[in-house]
């Protein structure tokens, strides 16, 4: 029997789980700075991962769950308002990078163009960026608006891994249909990492797995 492409990530082994726990233990993650231009980026002196996702996908909730800091990443009440790349430190050797939410056609065109240019520069020019985590709502799967960021990651040669959010909101009978749709979409993207992480920030599902993945990137 052929195994499915893009399987769900396995539970981390003991060593990886320990590394993930140690990295995020004690809620020591801190907000460093918000960046609106490449000149404002902090020194590329540590392992870096970034999080991308359309607005309201649960990005802030996921970052808060990962770091154990409930109010660390704040969701804007106004869709598309936050146009900064936000950097968080985790320990002495990791950055978590929160990219602005995308997918709002009512944002001013000049704002959209400026953001897209900054995003392309960041993804193409950040040598310490080890992986992009693209958040996809487990209730809806990959939407047309997500395809632009996936294609941009392909062209930037940045390995990305899909993280399905809000898994607790999906009935088990509907989950396989969504997974099939996501797998089909990812098959068209050469930069896609061949595992999917299924998470629920509310229930804590998949958080330890994601912590272990981040902690073991070099």
User: What is the CATH C level class, in words?
Assistant: Alpha Beta
- What letter string, H or E per element, gives the SSE order? HEEHEEHEHEHEH
Q: Which term fits the overall shape? A: globular
CATH topology: Rossmann fold
Q: Assign the CATH architecture.
A: 3-Layer(aba) Sandwich
Low-confidence stretches: none
Distance linking N and C termini:
33 Å
- Helix content range: 25-40%
- Rounded to the nearest angstrom, the radius of gyration is 16 Å
The CATH homologous superfamily name equals: P-loop containing nucleotide triphosphate hydrolases
What does this structure look like?
InterPro entries: G_ENGB_dom, GTP-bd, GTP-bd_ribosome_bio_YsxC, P-loop_NTPase, Small_GTP-bd. It comes from Aliishimia ponticola. GO terms for molecular function: GTP binding; metal ion binding. This is Probable GTP-binding protein EngB. With 218 residues, the protein is of the alpha/beta class. It contains 6 helices and 7 strands. It has helices spanning 14-24, 59-67, 109-125, 144-155, 172-186, 207-215; strands spanning 30-35, 47-53, 85-90, 94-98, 129-137, 160-165, 197-198. It is globular and about 45 Å long.
